[in-house]
UniProtKB/TrEMBL annotation, chain A:
Descriptive protein name: Unannotated protein
Record PANTHER family: POTASSIUM-TRANSPORTING ATPASE ATP-BINDING SUBUNIT
Gene3D superfamilies on file: Calcium-transporting ATPase, cytoplasmic domain N (3.40.1110.10), Calcium-transporting ATPase, cytoplasmic transduction domain A (2.70.150.10), HAD superfamily/HAD-like (3.40.50.1000)
Single GO cellular component term: membrane
PROSITE patterns in UniProt: ATPASE_E1_E2 (PS00154), COF_2 (PS01229)
Transmembrane spans: 25-46, 52-70, 204-225, 237-261, 563-581, 596-615, 635-658
Short name of one Pfam family: Hydrolase
Keywords carried by this UniProt record: ATP-binding, Cell membrane, Ion transport, Magnesium, Membrane, Metal-binding, Nucleotide-binding, Phosphoprotein, Potassium, Potassium transport, Translocase, Transmembrane, Transmembrane helix, Transport
SUPFAM superfamilies, per database record: Calcium ATPase, transduction domain A, Calcium ATPase, transmembrane domain M, HAD-like, Metal cation-transporting ATPase, ATP-binding domain N
Ranges where the P-type ATPase A domain occurs: 92-193
Lineage of origin: unclassified sequences, metagenomes, ecological metagenomes
GO molecular function list: ATP binding; ATP hydrolysis activity; metal ion binding; P-type potassium transmembrane transporter activity
From TrEMBL, chain B:
Organism from which the protein derives: freshwater metagenome
Protein name per the record: Unannotated protein
GO MF: P-type potassium transmembrane transporter activity
InterPro entries: KdpA
Keyword terms: Cell membrane, Ion transport, Membrane, Potassium, Potassium transport, Transmembrane, Transmembrane helix, Transport
Record has Cell membrane as a keyword: yes
PANTHER family, per database record: POTASSIUM-TRANSPORTING ATPASE A CHAIN, POTASSIUM-TRANSPORTING ATPASE POTASSIUM-BINDING SUBUNIT
Gene Ontology CC terms: plasma membrane
Membrane-spanning residues: 40-61, 68-87, 164-186, 198-220, 268-291, 311-337
Length: 661, 341
């Protein structure tokens, strides 16, 4: 990233220069003070030029510029994405259906919420809306980056379409749901460009603290003028301004908004759109994560995990029967049985396949006078005309662990024989247990939401390692659970896609709607995942935390820097009047002037040096608060104490070569 | 010699961290503080309530560990200042002490350097301000430490009540600055520190430095202010800065060389005392109101623990760096220059 930073900086320069407008800087009082200082030293340098005055003036201006540059670079990264989104907004002609059913051509910009438009294959959908008639495959790659077309159909949870996407086949009727200028793409553009950026609560609070530190140091420097005069150690305004700029927290002040923009940008890069920065921050604070079982924690379909043969039946015999009965079974369950046994083979000639029906609740095969069936225990019992105590035990055993038992039986020459049980179970995705362990270490509880009964839910919950589960959950249960957690002071994150998820999404502190979901869900949540990947909720929490950690780390670094700057500047200021203060010049800086310039230059350069970190965010490893604090304190606290001693000394070695210093 | 209810006054003076003595020379007077034992007992009395406040805090928030952590920070900072003061006084730099063999000027022989240093650290670490030695005669680094104790906001362990709230305000600053590094909105004892809360904390943190530094600047510029100084140069500066620091922090001890009985000094110090005591209280109470309205959040593994040794170190560090750094320039021109000469 560092290698590609330079062109980004150059590109961002015009924007950065525009941001030097004091009205723009009002938002960051720290940098405003630096600019006022720069104006003051410019006047003084013009009236009474000296190497010190000129150098300090130049570097003060650079300090302000580096700050606006950081913000400008962060914003620039969203610009390219915004440009490609704008292309989607080119005006097109839509065919609006009149109440009488006839069609009229209107410009897409004239569409209002509630209008019905007809869109055919090859046409661009003129605005956000819900499909009310028909089904079509739609290319949404321009919005989601996913090239495979998706199916959109009227009714149900797959009815939402986004303006600017292209219908690939068939014809649909769409009811427009957004007013012009307020579409999903409009919001996306505003978000990625940062133009709608509202500062988040924590950012505002941090700004207050930084401002108060700035005021303290303005008081320190302003009162130092008469106090130094009393001590017969008169200080020029240039030197006092230099001291002021070095002491106020310019590093974090300059990078604060860049950190916020970059945090949003990191989400956008993972195809998540946060409707507000507040939501991103809230993600860092989440205490409880509600995750749907199906598709998030498990693969979402049952798979055969083992074959349990009855006494007197060999394992091979059961395996063979299981495979034979599943050869024609194209359901994921059927294929998983073949995969488990591992013998792929063609359907025997002359075999008659028996498909699963809701009435028989069995499937199987009839071949060479032999009938094999597999199915629910009760159905097979009815077919075979009996059961065995051992079979009942096996069925019970599978059910009690949350699995689904499939009984296999065969009929040959009129006699029926029970063979055994196939254990089907919900398979937990790989790595989920580890992720939940990480979340627990971060202090986040995960609750699995499932429509399964309590027995199944408990078994899966134990296997996946979630902290709790909500079985046989209805949308109302979900909402009630969120409310209960929130009443306990906990913040809740969840994701959902259906219209019936909307109330819960709206209630949750962080509600991530799937892009495949309904318009209602997308509007209720405060984030939309364009990839529609519920697991991403975990990433979102990590990005939220990373954002806050980056802010904290750079603040600590900035404040810790002051110690070294005092050691550089104070002896330099007063060593003429009080030679004994030279013993405080622990860095052995070459001259008072060089020391002051070195500190100012360090103060400016550290901003540029930290831009990549501000944009990337500090590296985040899920861990407990204590471990995170210890680690970050070591790097940014101790680093902040030590780095300027080294940096200022090195700069002094160079700067002392400048004549006049 | 006038007598009176000295003993009862002593109890009030010390246990209430009030500091006003029965006699002009305060606890240096043999009727107020006759023996090394009474000296230690007086120090015990002036420290007992402020330290007990930290313990009480732990009981109030129903988590003793929180109180112990606050107590540990107080004890750590007081320990450091006692050590520095004692070393300074025992070493006794300067010509006069070298000639005399010890820095005994302005001290009572019955307490010695150590007994005087301990008293000085305790009285400036609290808002007591009683003295058993003349602080103006402390060695330069020793006087600097006494001054710095007050500049920290008298938090180690501070006045009765004011020491606790001063330390808690710094704890909130610490949580806010460092708490972000655990990736959550900062919270202290389950209360979130948002913008409105931090505005009040900021106002609190701003008040005393503005009063002290502003007061010092006025005193060292105005001719009436300069007229009160006994010495010129760095020690004169120390006298003035000590006076405004002591007033703004409601300590009451003084570098006696300063003639403060003039309209200028009386007015200046009076205003500083008034503003320095009541403005911070106003902000603390407002903040308490805001916190009281908040729902208390349950702690989790993701919350910054505020009872561990790491937090004790952090809070001490924040006190020294965030508050201490404010006064470094003025200390550099006073006690630091004096110490280095």
């Amino acid at each position: 990233m560092t290698s590609s930073l330079f062109p980004q900086l150059v590109e961002a320069l015009p924007g950065a220069l525009r941001k030097l407008d004091p009205r723009e800087l009002l938002r960051t009082p720290v940098m405003l003070v630096v600019e006022i200082g720069a104006v003051a030293t410019t006047v003084m340098a013009a009236l009474d030029p000296s190497s010190l005055a000129v150098l300090v003036t130049i570097w003060l201006w650079l300090t302000v510029l580096f700050g606006t540059l950081a913000e400008s670079v962060a914003e620039g990264r969203g610009k390219a994405q915004a440009a490609s989104l704008r292309a989607l907004q080119q005006e097109s002609t839509a065919r609006r259906r009149r109440p009488d059913g006839s069609l009229e051509a209107v410009p897409s910009t004239a569409l209002r919420a509630g209008d019905l438009v007809v869109v055919e294959a090859g046409e661009r959908i003129p605005g956000d809306g819900d499909v009310v008639e028909g089904v079509a495959s739609v290319d949404e790659s321009a919005v989601t980056g996913e090239s495979a077309p998706v199916i959109r159909e009227s009714g149900g949870d797959r009815c939402a379409v986004t303006g600017g996407t292209v219908v690939l086949s068939d014809q649909i009727v769409v009811r427009i749901t957004s007013e012009p200028g307020h579409s999903f793409v409009d919001r996306m553009i505003a978000l990625v460009e940062g133009s709608e950026r509202q500062r988040t609560p924590n950012e505002l609070a941090l700004n207050v603290l930084l401002t108060s530190l700035t005021v303290v140091f303005v008081v320190v420097c302003a009162t130092l003028y008469p106090i130094a005069d009393y001590s017969d150690a008169h200080q020029s305004l240039i030197v006092l301004t230099a001291l002021l700029v070095c002491l106020i927290p310019t590093t974090i002040g300059a990078l604060l908004s860049a950190i916020g923009i970059a945090g949003m940008d990191r989400l956008v890069r993972r195809n998540v759109l946060a409707m507000s920065g507040r939501a991103v921050e809230a993600a860092g604070d989440v205490d409880v994560l509600l995750l749907d079982k199906t598709g998030t924690i498990t693969y979402g379909n049952r798979q055969a995990s083992e074959l349990l043969a009855l006494d007197g039946v060999s394992a091979d015999e059961l395996a063979e029967a299981a495979v034979l009965s599943s050869l024609a079974d194209e359901t994921p369950e059927g294929r998983s049985i073949v995969a488990l046994v591992g013998t792929e083979r063609p359907v025997p000639a002359g075999a008659q396949l028996i498909a699963f029906t809701a009435t028989t609740r069995m499937s199987g095969i009839d071949v060479d006078g032999r009938s094999i069936r597999k199915g629910a225990a009760s159905a097979v019992a009815a077919w075979s005309g009996g059961s065995l105590p051992q079979l009942d035990t096996l069925v019970e055993q599978v059910s009690s662990t949350g699995g689904t038992p499939l009984v296999v039986a065969e009929q040959r020459d009129g006699s029926t024989r029970l063979l055994g049980v196939i254990h089907l179970k919900d398979v937990v995705k790989e790595g989920m247990r580890e992720r939940f362990d990480e979340l627990r270490a971060m202090g986040i509880r995960t609750v699995m939401i499932t429509g399964d009964n309590a027995v199944t839910a408990r078994a899966i919950a134990a296997e996946a390692g979630v902290d709790d589960f909500l079985a046989e959950a209805t949308p109302e249960d979900k909402l009630a659970l969120i409310r209960k957690e929130q009443e306990g002071g906990r913040m809740v994150a969840m994701c959902g896609d259906g219209t019936n998820d909307a109330p819960a999404l709206a209630q949750a502190d962080v509600g991530v709607a799937m892009n495949t979901g309904t318009t209602a869900a997308k509007e209720a949540g405060n984030m939309v995942d364009l990839d529609s990947d519920p697991t991403k909720l975990i990433d979102i929490v990590e990005i939220g935390k990373q954002l806050l950690i980056t802010r904290g780390a750079l603040t600590t670094f900035s404040v810790a820097n002051d110690v070294a700057k005092y050691f550089a500047i104070l002896p330099a200021m007063f060593v003429v009047a009080f030679p004994q203060l030279d013993s405080l010049n622990v860095m052995r800086l070459s001259s008072p002037e060089s020391a002051i310039v070195s500190a100012v230059v360090f103060n400016a350069l550290i901003i540029i040096a930290l831009i990549p970190l501000a944009l990337r965010g500090v590296s985040y490893q899920p861990a407990s608060a204590t471990d995170l604090l210890r680690r970050n304190l070591l790097i940014y606290g101790l680093g902040g104490l030590v780095a300027p001693f080294v940096g200022i000394k090195l700069l002094d070695l160079v700067i002392s070569l400048i004549p006049g210093l | 010699m006038t007598g009176g209810p000295v003993a009862s006054q002593e109890a009030i003076k010390q246990i209430g961290t009030n500091g006003g003595g029965f006699y002009n020379v305060n606890s240096a007077h043999p009727f107020e503080n006759p023996t090394p034992f009474t000296n230690l007992f007086q120090i015990f009395l002036l420290l007992v309530i402020p330290f007990a406040m930290a313990w009480a805090f732990g009981l109030i928030v129903k988590d003793r560990r929180q109180g112990v952590a606050i107590l540990a920070v107080m004890a750590l900072l007081l320990g450091i200042s006692v050590a520095l003061l004692t070393v300074s006084e025992m070493a006794g730099p300067g010509t006069a002490p070298a000639a005399a063999g010890a820095a005994m000027e302005g001290k009572e022989v019955r307490f010695g350097e150590a007994g005087s240093a301990l008293f000085a650290a305790a009285t400036t670490g609290t808002s007591t301000g009683a003295v058993n030695a003349m602080h103006d005669s402390l060695t330069a680094p020793g006087g600097g430490v006494a001054m710095f104790n007050m500049m920290l906001g008298e938090i180690a362990p501070g006045g009765t009540g004011s020491g606790l709230y001063g330390m808690l305000m710094l704890a909130i600053v610490t949580v806010f600055l460092c708490g972000l590094m655990v990736g959550r909105t900062p919270e202290y004892l389950g209360k979130k520190i948002g913008q409105r809360e931090i505005i009040l904390v900021a106002l609190y943190v701003l008040t005393t430095p503005i009063l002290v530094l502003g007061g010092a600047a006025i005193a060292l510029t105005a001719s009436d202010g300069l007229a009160g100084l006994q010495e010129s140069g760095p020690h004169g500066l120390s006298e003035a800065v000590y006076a405004v620091t002591s007033a703004a922090n409601n300590n009451g001890s003084a570098f006696g060389g300063l003639t403060s009985g003039t309209p200028f000094w009386n007015t200046l110090l009076g205003v500083l005392m008034l503003a320095g005591r009541f403005l911070p209280m106003l902000f603390v109470l407002a903040l308490a109101g805001l916190f009281a309205r908040q729902r208390q959040l349950p702690p989790s593994a993701g919350t910054l623990p505020t009872h561990r040794p790491l937090f004790v170190a952090l809070l001490s560090g924040v006190a020294l760096v965030v508050v201490g750094l404010t006064y470094v320039p003025v200390l550099a021109l006073g006690p630091i220059v004096e110490s280095l000469s």
